[in-house]
Write a structure and sequence with these properties.
The structure is a homodimer. By secondary structure, chain A is an alpha+beta fold. Chain A contains 17 helices and 18 strands. In chain A, the strands form three sheets. The first copy, chain A, has an eight-stranded mixed beta sheet with strand order 8-12-13-18-17-16-15-14, sandwiched between helices. Chain A has a five-stranded mixed barrel with strand order 3-4-5-7-6. At the A-B interface, helix 2, helix 3, helix 8, helix 9 and strand 8 of A face helix 2, helix 3, helix 8, helix 9 and strand 8 of B.
Amino acid sequence: CVVSSCFRAGEEEQQAQSKKALKKQQKEAEKAAKKAEKQAKLVSVRQETQTLPMAHHCRMEGFLLFYNSCDYKSADRALVRVQDLTPEKAEQQIWVRARIHTSRAKGKQCFLVLRHQQFTVQALLAVGDCASKQMVKFAANLTKESIIDVEAVVKKVEQKIESCSQQDVELHVERIFVISQSEARLPLQLEDAVRPEGEGDEEGRATVNQDTRLDNRVIDLRTTTSQSIFRLQSGVCQLFRDTLINKGFVEIQTPKIISAASEGGANVFTVSYFKTSAYLAQSPQLYKQMCICADFDKVFCVGPVFRAEDSNTHRHLTEFVGLDIEMAFNYHYHEVIDSITDTMVQIFKGLRDRFQTEIQTVNKQYPSEPFKFLEPTLRLEYKEAVAMLRAAGVEMGDEEDLSTPNEKLLGRLVKEKYDTDFYVLDKYPLAVRPFYTMPDPNNPKYSNSYDMFMRGEEILSGAQRVHDAQLLTERAMHHGIDLEKIKAYIDSFRYGAPPHAGGGIGLERVTMLYLGLHNVRQTSMFPRDPKRLTP
Amino acid sequence: CVVSSCFRAGEEEQQAQSKKALKKQQKEAEKAAKKAEKQAKLVSVRQETQTLPMAHHCRMEGFLLFYNSCDYKSADRALVRVQDLTPEKAEQQIWVRARIHTSRAKGKQCFLVLRHQQFTVQALLAVGDCASKQMVKFAANLTKESIIDVEAVVKKVEQKIESCSQQDVELHVERIFVISQSEARLPLQLEDAVRPEGEGDEEGRATVNQDTRLDNRVIDLRTTTSQSIFRLQSGVCQLFRDTLINKGFVEIQTPKIISAASEGGANVFTVSYFKTSAYLAQSPQLYKQMCICADFDKVFCVGPVFRAEDSNTHRHLTEFVGLDIEMAFNYHYHEVIDSITDTMVQIFKGLRDRFQTEIQTVNKQYPSEPFKFLEPTLRLEYKEAVAMLRAAGVEMGDEEDLSTPNEKLLGRLVKEKYDTDFYVLDKYPLAVRPFYTMPDPNNPKYSNSYDMFMRGEEILSGAQRVHDAQLLTERAMHHGIDLEKIKAYIDSFRYGAPPHAGGGIGLERVTMLYLGLHNVRQTSMFPRDPKRLTP
């Protein structure tokens, strides 16, 4: 195949010969293919591309390649990552694969900025020993976002290149292979997409609005900010699971298609299921609890949860990722709170220690204070929170739920008083919690339930669950729930159930609030809300 | 609260007094609760239970407890796990929490088998110093599957107790607290549920059929076999992720609700989405590929995939867990195959090394040969497989797909010839693969695609994907696919896309085939098929 013919410098003649032979072979293959497909119009792009190199002399010019895994395999052509281009590599001849971030031609020179993930490096082509006039022209005409392989010599620079992540070196390019060409017109510019919001306004430069970003997510995800957000989010999941596995938890998989809407039937998506209807699970709670009743003792799961809620706020999605925990305890549900808060603390520490580059990168576009937390985690009772809010002038009843503004205010008061961005609010009023919440044994107005907050916003809701079928029946009746619809749930507790508690964490919220971002759509790769189902 | 009053022996009087005070308090609380709830019928079970201990003298009798996390927290009452009851603990006074697996009264004695997860121990109550007549009677009347705390002395036994996992010790019980009572009539017996299939028939003993198991999954999951299967499955996920994270992969989360059915629209579940309709994702493939186009380079995800296929076979589910991989490669898609096969090998090794107890436990009920694999993994070309099958008498065309019986036959032939239960079949005929499959550059009849097999059954299907919008358009047209419907998919490749390949693994199939089981419903906690939506 053609690709293998275009490699060693100074072998043009051999190449020309083998190229002829290959062309012949290719034509034959082309004929066979056409015959087989019986569609005269379908000429393979692969073949077109390979027979249309931009130039014939590899050493001096560019080349278009189409990677369809022909037998060519270049063990001797290792690729160096952009992030590894440092002064230690000075004067080395290397290959790099990267995107063209920007391109600027200037007389007989062409300056490229090459980008791979969060990392950028400057590359220079100059007419002379290394590059022909045609090659510089070829390079100058390459579209931004195209992926290229370049062979180049690494050169130390006198003055730091402030605009690149690799500030101490540049590449002197000798060959360019185009791996994949981008269309010339991009739906958004990456420079605009990483500009801090205020800055754009002041200098009259463009920023990119959220819908444009999300409509063109494939490009928006290439920004240094997006790369950092989602690498850090991958870390959140990993730290969550590793911590729990160390604590003896078992990972479970729970079904998302369910036969009955467990929590009363509101806000549930309906699915057609063969000749009947089903629902999408609003939470894995029933299944987590069944696993506890089946002696798994400590379980967690990571998976999508679905809420058919018509909420168009900065923190609601119709589909998000739940990090769910359920745990049998020995004597007191605070054992479970302690396990969850310790897990959160391990996550915060892991992010701080392993993802500092990503945090700094996000901060450049979205500045925020470092996330603060205490050890052990601060636990306040609901009563105390109400007292703090009242002292700050809020009027509210003892058994009234917290409004979103009051949650945020409370977050600020707690931060002032205790200097933490993370805390637990324990002992919610029984009246504002679901029927399966265990009442407080010491005060019937309250319950063994808790929320956890990051920067004043809720990230987890949890409780000790009623593990006794009779009490559960009574509580459901008290809430006016149709017992027939939750029969399977209640029956799960009839054959011996250990006391247990748990909770569900919203992954996107954790990432958003840890980084001090302001919209959960920034931390969901492909967010779903009442108005968005694409891409 | 009452619970805390019933603890130390020899303090009966103090207890009686504090109990009175507590009863008074409780009555008052009860009144307040009643008033607040304004429902005369709703007497809290919690309170009923606490005021109805089975006996007043803790030391000598049993007691019913209701764990609602009253302030009692027993730091001095550590619980020992059943699996840790070994001769080293002989003569120690300990507390154990476990289920009553079996119970047998015999004159003045009562023998219990206590069970926690996969582990069992014998416990003995005898009228005498330690236990009163009433207590033995109380113990004898406890229902199977109830959860109890026992205080007991660990005793070495002369003769191994063959029926228990802890064969060298038994417990001499002094106190019993009931944590949660089971109903007397169980829908299935755990002894029946772990009986090997043949054995039941021969001895005229019952086994439990699959529907009964699944209908009562909370109990069926308590068997040693189920406990082992799902602990091992948790290990599969963990090994999969750890291996990939070590290789530099990033975990991504992809949406399950999608706006268009990507693969032609057959076998897709429809969801009502506010005022419009949506679909459940049949695979995360489009989103994995978008992440590749967004420079994440190596991604994986673990999540549910949905297939509205009316297949009622041993290996099809309508919802299963996909372990998905997508990876940009440098020069050849075999780089990706190598990454995937190495990941599978790491999983097999990890299971073999860390889950031997679980494997042995499952083998007791479902005997199978140990799983064999080679390093490096065997890779056969489709052509070779067809030749092997033809040599074995099968008639099939070059470009014909493998039928399920032929896959199994091939598995046996490969096992005979190469002694492996795991291999890759590479270079499938282009005609039998989806439109986005990259054609083989050397032979237009074939493609850069592959399946992987365990014990002769497919566990992964994958390919190099077409990363060029123009070729993708042509391939889609060739397949007669409405271009309008896949516009977003094709557009993803217009702004520079690296060559890439990937595949999706079915978690339940991996667990099933690794353990040599015969139905994928055994390895799905709550399986979904065209006929089953519950529990």
